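Lab notebook: predicted structure, single chain.

Context: the supervisor wants predicted structures on file for every construct in the current expression panel, including those that have not yet been purified. This is the next one on the list. No modifications to the sequence; it matches the entry in the shared construct table.
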Amino acid sequence: MTEHDISFDDYASADIAKKVEAAAVKKASLPFWSVVFLSIIAGSFIGIGGMFSTLVTFDSNLPLGITKLLGGLVFCVGLILVVVAGAELFTGNNLIVMGVASRVVRFSQLLRNWAIVYTGNLIGSLAAAFLMYYTNLWKMGSYGYAAKAVIIAAEKTNLTFVEGITRGILCNALVCLAIWMCFGARQIISKIAAIIFPVTAFVAIGFEHSIANMYFIPFGLILKNNPNVIESAAKMSASLNLSNLTIYGFLGNLLSVTLGNIVGGAIMIGLIYWIIIVVPQKRKR
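Prediction complete. Output recorded below exactly as produced.
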């Protein structure tokens, strides 16, 4: 079968590893401005997922588990847009470590990519938060939407450092598994299916995604000074604690969650799969 033949069979693990390494080389070699714009786009895509998830959950009267399930399901639009439309997302790019392990990507290239993409993701996420604010759509439901956004942000900034790391590890293990399975899919619908279950799981369970938090927490920070929003939030959550919803709380959350994301994506998925799949292949040669 040639590369031009049509096949509906998904790629095997060995082929996925080769595709991930090839993608790592390509990503590490992208021109600076291409990486910048693609990463800004990715941050805004994840922000859209956050907007959608907040909308679906803010006034739900369904059982908690079902509400979280629905919130996770619609949040998937963010990663679907990243994968299908094409963008550079820091958490997914943790898999570039496989290229470093195989010595087809230099460690300096990895750090360059991560630094640019992380910064671009932050810019895109902040842009999404500010654009959403100026739509005034957060006033819907008698400020219920905004109240939910503030509660989400407050809960994230109230996490301990250990909670942020461990939730970040588990989150990006699932995200990178979704990306891994996308490399095994030939059709767009297969890629979407590969994304839905892992991403829905991490959101519904309550794991932490650094780029998503670049949207959720700043949006909460923007809204927390509105008295109507705080009044609505207090009614929605009896345990509302805004003491850590500050710039320092945001940065502390990002630090712990980002470290966790790197461990979960680069080490638990990227390096472990490299050891399991690529190393035995190299020994056979």
